[in-house]
């Protein structure tokens, strides 16, 4: 039972209000004579004016709140309701000024029919307006000028004033002196009550779906309005008890509607602001703790990323040659300095049978993790041998190897903006011939002869990248003859483009000067000399690109 009352307390409230109104109207004749003794005609008009002008002021306030808050709230329902109440307020003003016993207003009013006509017109407009306000949505998809909702009530009220005042015979009579209300007026009051009743049920249906308490408040206001209209069907004398009760209930209805509009449009934003302010204060009080927690989480994630990078670095390092295939005919020395934990540069030197040594060097677009992943692809796709029909593994020429990598690359799902630039060559230990092919390497290998002469290999070829299948890409083999004492330097552009504090680059000129100056050194000594000279030039500046090079010395 307790849960029933708790879950349905809003509906029980409306039932209590309805029963209270029924009891009030049923017992009103019992204290009618006492009220008439307290209120003579003059004092009754004063009370009537207080109720009416209070209702008019509230109606204007409701309109102002809904009108001036529309830009922020964009609530068309409240704007329409405020406009309807403003129109009712204007007509109620005419009703008050034409009430029997008031001073002349425009013309002398000798009967109660004009004020009663103004009254029922205001109630009809209000009934239709309140009913329509329950049906229309809060938001509209089309744009309109809100000034219309101020101008139209003024125009309509002036038309009604002119019609009732100067053309009274156009409308049916609503009150006959000595007889009371006409059947037409009573019928129209029931029409208004019917509209209010339908609006109340519609509001209860909306409350069932949304459970917003302000809807119950609006339904309660309309319930007061419904019994106010019922009271106006019962009076015979305009100074009677039912007329007094009707005005009182109407005032209560206006006040509740104003309270709902005020809370929703004015008070509610401030309540939300206060709530947000309190939440912000609590958040600020706990900010140090939250920052500490977030910092700990970030540090944990950062450490996980560093661990992953270290793992990637180990994987990439495992793909580099651990030991150079030095022989009596050739010696090798390599240097590898990544700009970040993982690199986009790659190289390898490996034996191909007993008399040949393969070697490649290259660079992928960018650097860091994304570039390192491309080097993994290259390591998997690089296949220098192929099994023939007899089951013997033949050594493929450099151009064929590059073409196969190119085909694999275009079959993979790589971004069109990334590419691989590399050079692959094979050195024949017996003949000292070096055969090579280039896939877009932008720095040519440099030959340092025993006499100190410096020459560059002529390289050409398209980088390994995404290219339309209709365009056939070919790589070309070139062969040179090397002699004893020659040194061949392979490197990536990170070597010559290393920058110092003044943004100067190391350049191929400085590299060639260093080669010529130390032409007498062997591969190991020359590699150490180049490394020392480069890092002395950049003066401990952070590397912007990977530095990779290796030297082959012909013996």
Explain what this protein looks like in three dimensions.
With 555 residues, the protein is an alpha+beta fold. 56% of the residues lie in helices and 13% in strands. The chain has 17 helices and 14 strands. The chain has helices at residues 2-7, 9-27, 32-38, 41-68, 70-73, 76-97, 113-135, 148-166, 183-210, 213-232, 241-285, 287-318, 369-381, 398-411, 493-496, 507-517, 523-538, and strands spanning 175-176, 180-181, 330-337, 345-352, 356-364, 385-387, 393-395, 420-428, 433-439, 446-448, 454-456, 478-481, 487-491, 547-554. Strands 3-14-13-10-11 form a 5-stranded antiparallel β-sheet. A 5-stranded antiparallel β-sheet has the order 4-5-8-9-12. Strands 1-2 form a two-stranded antiparallel ribbon. A hairpin with a 5-residue loop joins β6 (385-387) and β7. α6 (76-97) packs parallel to α8. It starts with a helix and ends with a strand. The model has no long low-confidence stretch (mean pLDDT 83).
Q: Would you summarize the structure shown here?
A:
By secondary structure, the protein is an alpha+beta fold. Helix content is 56%, strand content 13%.
